[in-house]
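User: Hi! I'm working on a homework problem where we have to compare a predicted structure to a textbook description. Could you give me the structure for the chain below?
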Amino acid sequence: MFGFFIYLSSLVYVPHAIILLGFVILVIQNPKYTFSSLHNFIKKPTFKVNTNNFIVFTIVIASLVNMMNNLNKVSSFGDFFPYFILIPFTYYIAKVVKPTQWKWLLYFVALECIIGVFQFIIGQPSFFPEFLKFPEVYDPNLLYYRRVYGLSTSSSTFANKILLALVLSDYVLKKSLVKQVLTVLFWLGLFVTFNRTVLIVVVLYYGFKYLQANLKTKFKPTRFYLNALVVFIGGIFMFLLFWRFSGELITQFTRNRDGLDISGRDQIWLYFLDFIKTHFFFGNGGFKVYNPKGLHAHNSFIQVLATNGFLIFCLYLLLIFRNLRNENLIPVLILIVYSLTQYGIFWGISLMDMAFFYLLLRPKGPTDTFEYERDPQINWQKLLPLETS
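Assistant: Happy to help. Predicted C-alpha cells:
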C-alpha cells in the first residue's frame, strides 16, 4: 500500500498531495511508536529528543520565524502553506518505513520502464498529448528529442523515478534474480528517457561503487592483478569505443550544438546567485524564489539558500553530514550530485526526499532495523493514558 500510493503521486492527472497517504498508512501501521512518542514529547518535559529530531524541528521553527518576519512577501494563497512544514512528515516516513515496503515502488517503476520502451519503439513519447512539449528545433536522429514520458508528466520526472529506483534497489534488496531483472529494466528506462544528468550520475554511481568495493576488499595479489587486468581491458575498450563514436556521442549529449549545452542553467544560476548576494542571511524569508520566467533554481542547494538564507541552510547541511556513513556514502552523494543540476531534494515531501532521508537515516539491507516495537493493535487508552484524579 505504501509503495503504491507514493508511486501513484508521480503519475499524470494524480494530485501530488496523495503522497501524504503514504504517511497516513505508516501512522496507522505503527500506532505504538507514533502516539507513545507524541505523548512523551508533550507530557514529559525531560523526554530525550535525539539530535536528528532536534535538527529537523529546529529547521521548521527557524523557517517559521523567518517567514513570520517576512509576511509582506506573501503574493498568493499558495504562499500560506510553507513547504518546510512537510519535512517532519518525510523524516517520519524515512524513520518508520520497512525496507520491504519500497518493493512495490520498484515494481511499479519497472512496469513503467516497460511502457516507456514500448513508447520508444512505436515513436509515441506519451499517451497523454497534453503533456508533450514540442521544441522549436526537432531532430529525430537525436535521442534527446525522442525521450519518452512513460506514465509521468515529463521525461525528467520519469528519469528521476528510475534513478531513485536503481539506487533504492541496491540499498534495500538482497542479491537475487528479481533484482537483476529490475536493474535491466531500469537501464532500459534510462536509455529511452535519455536524461543526460541522470545518465552521468548513474555512471558515476557505478564507478564509485566499483572503487569502494575494491578498497574494502582485503588485498590479495591474485585478485588485485585480475581487477587491474579487467580495468585495463575495459579502459582500452571504452577508449576505442569513444574514439570510434566520439562524434555521435558528443552530438547526442550536446543536441548537436556548439559548446557545452546545459539548457540555460548558467543564466538561471546567475540570477539566483545574484539574489543570494543581496539576501544572504535570511534569503527570501522562507518563501520559494523563482526567476522572472517562473523557473526554480535547478539546484537544490542554491534553491534552499535563496529561499531560507545561510543560517537555515547550515542546518540542512548539518543534518546531511552528521548522518553520512560508509554504507550510505555513495548513494547519498549521488543524489546530492544529481541535485546540483536539478531541483532534486528538499521539496518538503517527494519521492526523492523520502529516498534521500531513508538513505541518510537507515542502514543498508532488507532487514527491518526499526528500533521500536511494531504493533498494529491500536489501544488508545494505553497509548494516550488519561490522568485520573
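For your comparison, note the following. The CA atoms of residues 297 and 303 lie 5 Å apart. The longest helix spans residues 221-254. Good luck with the assignment!
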